[in-house]
Amino acid sequence: MREYRIFIVEDEAIVAADLTETLRSLGYAAAGTARSGETAVEKIRELSPDLVLMDIHLAGTMDGVDVAVEIHRTSDVPVIFLTAYADNDLLERAKHADPYGYLIKPYDERELRSVIEMAQYKFAMDKMLRESEEKYRALTENTPDILFSANMAKMITYVSPQINKYGYLEEEVVGRSLSMLIHPGDIDQVENNQIRELENGAQIVSQFRILDKWGTTFWVEERSFLRLDISGKPAGIYGILRDVSERKRAEDAIELANKKLNLMNNITRHDILNTITGLLGCVDMANAAVDPSERAELLGEVKDLTRSIQRQIAFTKEYQEVGVHLPMWQNVSAVLTRMMCNFEAAHAAVVVDLEPVEMYADPLLEKVFYNLVDNAIRYGETLTTIRFSAEYTDSGLTIICEDNGVGIPDEQKQKIFERGVGRNTGMGLFLSREILGITGISIMENGVSGTGARFEIQVPRGTYRVA
Predict the structure, then answer these.
(1) Do 460 and 372 lie in a common domain?
(2) Is residue 192 located within the same domain as residue 279?
(3) HSE on the CB side for 244, CA within 13 Å?
């Protein structure tokens, strides 16, 4: 077992020599001695002893208290003060140097041993505590979750630094009610859950919305449990808040996509059956017709109805892709760049004037932009330029697609997003609206007829971010 090494700081050589012999007789090793504070700091840094016995009154510019403060700043070594004086002012100064003991001269061997052993034990315990604190601090500061504690009045007593992600400093939150973070629409639900679960002594597991300092909504999952005092009485709550916004957005998008697909399947099935009924009627009338011109007209209607069924089936093929894959964060400029490759031979110039920004949208987002540009080129007539830009508003981000073509008549502005309305298949803008709607994004047209079309894609807060 390694000897316990003690360094002596004493300006009287005879006292230092006597103390060295006493330490050896007690089973300790003398790591070295120093007569001045400056020498002591240098040697202690070099030798790294296990403990320092420090006379408070030293010759030179530094006394023992000054030396102890400097040692604690540069080395992790416990200090025991030795002094022949015990006045109150000196004790007050010595306390601020965090000594592990205080011996009044003269002292006997038993007293010296006791103080050294207590200092050994206390320093070992303090070191274990520091290491434990550092370990848990590292875990707390590096986990992505928010860790918090609250008293029984639901006032926050501790919150981890991850709260900074939502715009708050720890000191802005500690001492305030947990409800300051919760979305107003969810406060009653959260408080009722907490009351019910805490009465049963159970762990609380719930999902709710919180607001950051700027009013953006996030979904979190709370897991918390009751903290009991030494007598077993409830003393507060320990909890974890995990950001599940991405998961919640994906779940909501899948649910909405399934609803849309089921509705569209029902509508398409109904439309195709109606068209087939008309088709069969035309076939029967054509078979019964005697006049060749009448029969030719009816056969022409059969062809038109057949093409209608063909378009409906083709549309279902496109629509079935909506919501099939999880939404994802997409760089808008990169999506537009890919889309523009399809129009390199077009007579119109496509200008992108966007800061780097990402949207949380269905993977078919590129098809939305394609449909807007394709429609503009097809029907813009006098069009020469299509421009994409963005504006930030209180409610979120608006991505604008505008051109200098003939525009859209006022009476058509609301109808163009309906299924089957338009001069081609009538499905492009309807499909675009459905794709955007998967993640709560909307689209509208509010250009001025005669001067150009202007489509505005409204991206709510939480579904866009600066790239």
Answers:
(1) yes
(2) no
(3) 16
Let me know whether 126 and 14 are in one domain.
yes
With pLDDT > 70 as the criterion, what percentage of the chain qualifies? 89
Nearest Cα to 398, choosing from 408, 390, 407, 406? 390
Quote the CA–CA distance of 435 and 437 in Å, as a whole number: 6
Q: pLDDT tens digits for 298-320? A: 788 878 778 767 766 765 665 56
Q: What is the DSSP letter of 356?
A: S
Radius of gyration for the alpha carbons in the chain, expressed in angstroms and rounded: 39
Burial class from Cβ neighbours inside 10 Å (0-12, 13-18, 19+) for residue 15 reads: middle
Residue 234 bridge partners (DSSP): 228
Residue 330 β-bridge partners = 359
CATH number at residue 82: 3.40.50.2300
pTM for the whole thing? 0.50
What CATH code is carried by the domain that includes residue 165? 3.30.450.20
Q: Are 377 and 406 in contact (CB under 8 A)?
A: no
Last residue of a domain, one of 182, 209, 243: 243
Which residues make Cβ contacts (< 8 Å) with residue 443, sequence separation at least 6? 368, 417, 429, 432, 433, 436, 455, 456, 457, 458
Instruction: Give the DSSP letter string of 60-121.
Output: SS--HHHHHHHHHHH----EEEEES---HHHHHHHHTT--SEEEESS--HHHHHHHHHHHHH
Residues 32-61: pLDDT tens digits?
999 888 888 999 999 999 999 999 888 778
Within 10 angstroms of residue 178's Cβ, the number of other Cβ atoms is 24
Q: What tokens appear for 18 in the block?
A: 């006597």
The strand order across the sheet containing 217-228 reads 156-159, 146-151, 234-243, 217-228, 204-211
Q: How far apart are CA 236 and CA 233, in angstroms?
A: 9
Helix (H) or strand (E) holding 399: strand 396-403
Same domain, 386 and 442: yes
For residue 430, give the amino acid letter: F
Do 225 and 342 lie in one domain? The reply is no
Answer yes or no: are the C-beta atoms of 380 and 453 closer than 8 Å: yes
The domain total for the chain is 4
Residue labelled with tokens 């047209």? 445
Which residues, other chains included, contact 215 with Cβ-Cβ below 8 Å and sequence gap of 6+? Answer: 461
